[in-house]
Amino acid sequence: MAQTSLPVGVAEELDRPLKGGVSVQKTVTILRPAEDVFAAFQGFALVPRFVGHVQSITENGPGRWRWVGRLGQEETVEWDAVIVDEQAPHRLAWEAVDGGAVRARGSAALRPAPADRGTELTVRLDYAPPLGQAGRALLKLLGEEPKQEITRDLYRLRQLLEAGVIATTEGQPSGRAEG
Amino acid sequence: MKAVCYAGRHKVEVRDVPDPRPLTPRDAVVRITSTAICGSDLHLYDGHIPTMEDGDILGHEFMGEVVELGDEVDNLAVGDRVVVPFAVSCGRCFYCRQDLYSLCDNSNPNAPMAEAMYGHSGAGMFGYSHMFGGYAGGQAEYARVPYADVGAFKVPSSLPDEKVLFLTDIFPTGYMAAEACGIQPGDVVAVWGCGPVGQFAIRSALILGAERVIAVDRVPARLALAAQAGAVELIDYSTLDVTEELKELTGGRGPDHCIDCVGMEAYGTSPDAVYDRAKTTLMLSQDRPTALRQALQACRKGGTVSIPGVYGGLLDKLPFGAAFAKGLTLKMGQTHVHRYLPTLLDLVEQRTIDPSFVISHRLKLGDAPEAYETFKHEKDGCIKVVLSP
To answer: How far is B272 from chain A (nearest CA, A)?
Structure first.
């Protein structure tokens, strides 16, 4: 994996919204040390398990990652992301590249919660127009309520890291026709 | 298997549904031997809790025998006889680690739904709407128990189902409500509502050292059952002015602590109660807080108003000024059943209490539709219904 550490000021620049784009941000507290939370993002190891629309993330060259997203039951969409900032266990930032242009950015920022309350994790996603294929797909994947989507994603991460399993009712019986 | 399913307002049906199976490595499947209908099931039945869907399996008071276990449940074995708390709790989050199990951070897969309504989401619950997780309930032949390593408690074979079934909800609920009062020697505790939770609150208050309990209800059979607990006085609110009567019975001081075991569907005869019924009928407000209003008004200065009765949404015309002026302490919330269950199981084993005293009706699972009607309308002296599959 590429290890990059940006000069002072550049990380802040990365946090600014992409021009004319949309941003969504969510913070959760997870009752685990920052190292454990960071490990979920390192190499995007756990990301496909807790992000609803991501099917897989595999290494695609040095510091480059191939994301496969689910658009529907059958349809998938792929894009590449590069890591642009990695300061374990405090911050990881990545950019989705589409024909050389940055169309989307993501970052995970971690800081200790007070006393023994674990780690505060802020995840932020930015999308820029013109969206291009990857950007459009990402927006579609996030649905009409990206804040709710990212909230569900981060709660699933908390469930995994704290409880060891993701809370679910999928596959349970009901008295509805579909079972 | 057969399961009691929600089929719309005032309608439940026993339907054939698929058998449950473990969905995560921390799950168990239990073959249910006894299950009960809770007063809070009537809130669902009456359509007061949003996000119910046709076909949802009801029930959150159940026990049975473990028939299947996920790989990570290492403290249970197939064949174990267990009782299952109504709240679904992960046992490992910030809240569970503080014994605040009903506030679990991780067990509600639909947490954003509850957050939209309440700001934050508590634990998921069995058979209690999609906002609280959409978990299939236990009025069925089998149930899946998530986080079974913390959510299923073994019970000794020497105790029959009827003595341990209510450890799943109503006994801990009444007990936690009484414990929240911090009862001191000489304290008089008033309890609104002599349904099952009220009955357990009354007995718990006495176990915890209350001098006397004053029970408020209008149903003769319920008041009579309350009187059997010991040092209990009765107020029939349909014939007496409750707050005045409470003052008279407590030397003008008012009860030291007031417990509202009624919740959102209070039935009253006062003008405010009639007004509330009109408003909830018109969907202008969700809850009818008649009992809570009286409790706030009646409680002595510096006392505690403890609220195990369930409230779902907006309350109208609550005398908050009285609560402030008298410096009351308000305690409330869903019960942390996991916290209380071992202690209360001990009380049952020591024969301090036999929880089966509340049972008025023993029926089959297939009788659920009429059982709901009987319970709702308090027919045949109905206080508590237990169903066997």
So the answer is: 39
pLDDT digit string (tens) for B204-227? 999 999 999 999 999 999 999 999
How many residues can be counted in chain A? 179
Average model confidence (pLDDT) across chain A: 83
B236 beta partners:
B217
3-state secondary structure of A38: helix
pLDDT above 50: residue A5 = no
Q: Which residues, at least 6 apart from B45, have a Cβ–Cβ distance to it below 8 Å?
A: B9, B10, B12, B372, B376
Are B26 and A164 a contacting pair at CB < 8 A?
yes
pTM (whole model) above 0.90: yes
Q: Do B109 and A168 touch (CB under 8 A)?
A: yes
Contact B92 A31 (CB under 8 A): yes
Nearest-angstrom CA–CA distance, B361 and B381: 9
8 Å CB contact between B354 and B348: yes
Residues of chain A found within 8 Å of residue B3, distances taken between Cβ atoms: 173, 175
DSSP state of A163: I
pLDDT (tens digit per residue) in A13-43: 555 666 667 788 999 999 999 999 999 999 9
Its ipTM equals 0.93
The pLDDT > 90 percentage for chain B reads: 89
For chain A, list residues whose CB is within 8 angstroms of any CB belonging to chain B: 29, 31, 117-118, 148, 151-152, 155, 158-159, 162-177, 179
Residue B146 DSSP class:
T
CB contact under 8 A, A167 and B20: no
- Do A119 and A37 form a contact (C-beta atoms < 8 A)? yes
- Round the CA-based radius of gyration of chain A to a whole number and report it: 17
**Which residue on chain A is closest to B93 by alpha carbon?**
A162
Give A167→chain B minimum CA distance, Å: 5
